[in-house]
Write a structure and sequence with these properties.
The chain is an alpha/beta fold and about 250 residues long. The protein is built from nine helices and seven strands; from the N terminus they run H-H-H-E-H-E-H-E-E-E-H-E-H-E-H-H. Strands 2-1-5-6-7 form a five-stranded parallel sheet, sandwiched between helices. Bound molecules: ligand PTJ. Ligand PTJ binds near residues 28, 76, 103 and 178.
């Protein structure tokens, strides 16, 4: 039992949720180490959404709303931490939600699809094929889902698939707390922010931009250069480190 007045309450509850989901097999054991890496970078960011991440989230919203066939890719960590937030983003953006796993088993795919459905998402399931140019199991996706997408949102990605999707001519939006990762550098647009802060931020922007009408979308695209967004995130971290002991 984690006491609600613990100074690291949110972080500890999040870990507890991930550990429980790992015991059930929803989160891969490797997903726990991936989370730990994310936490370390979030410390450096001050565990808050920065101005550059907010700009990236708004651009991501414009990309999703302007897309012909937008897809949100979901893995174990994302389902464990943000399934309700993903369902809300789907409603606001009109994107397809599809499960895509690095440590893929049919059992995990079914478990994650159920978590998403229970949270209110309309999950694109059905026959998966080995369609992406990758030697690992992230190659499995649906022909009318991710394979046909023009814009793909990939929270907590591995760099390989991000690179493969970009190589296929798709626009890739990554959410990754590590601005140095291959994913962050290979994506079309990277939101350097924590998943559970970034997804609602994109949803808010989708709702606001949809209400404002299509003429407001065009000036937001193609949006800031990804290199600029990463250097702003690194700058924030450097600044916090330089004042760490003040
Ligand atoms: O569920 P599966 O089988 O698809 O596997 C998922 C993992 C996460 C194990 C797989 O995609 C993986 O190995 O990912 P990586 O290569 O470790 O990359 C994960 C990235 O996400 C790292 O750069 C972390 O810094 C970042 N990260 C971790 N937790 C968060 C995060 N970024 C945003 N929000 C988080 N909560």
């Amino acid at each position: 039992m984690i006491p609600a007045d613990h100074p690291r309450y949110k972080s500890l509850v999040t870990r507890e949720r991930l550990a429980e989901c790992a015991r059930q097999g929803v989160v891969a054991m490797e997903g726990l180490t991936a989370h730990g890496r994310g936490e370390a970078f979030d410390y450096l960011l001050g565990e808050r959404t920065t101005d550059s991440a907010r700009l990236a989230a708004r651009t991501a919203a414009a990309m999703l709303l302007s897309a012909r066939h937008p897809v949100i890719s979901v893995n174990g960590n994302t389902a464990a931490l943000a399934s309700r937030e993903i369902a809300a983003l789907q409603k606001a953006s009109g994107a397809i939600v599809e499960v895509n796993l690095f440590h893929r088993t049919e059992k995990r795919v079914a478990q994650i699809e159920k978590i998403l459905t229970d949270a209110g998402a309309d999950v694109f399931s059905g026959e998966a094929e080995r369609l992406l140019p990758l030697t690992h199991d992230r190659a499995w996706c649906r022909r009318d889902g991710m394979f046909s997408a023009d814009v793909v949102l990939v929270p907590l990605e591995d760099g390989d698939r991000c690179e493969a999707l970009v190589g296929m001519g798709k626009q890739v939006i990554a959410i990754d707390l590590n601005p140095l990762s291959r994913t962050a550098r290979k994506a079309t647009l990277t939101i350097v922010d924590e998943l559970t802060r970034a997804v609602p931020e994109i949803t808010r922007a989708c709702t606001e931009l949809s209400a404002a009408g299509p003429e407001v979308l065009a000036p937001l695209l193609p949006g800031p250069d990804n290199h600029y967004l990463l250097s702003e995130a690194i700058g924030e971290m450097r600044l916090r480190l330089s004042h760490a002991l003040d």
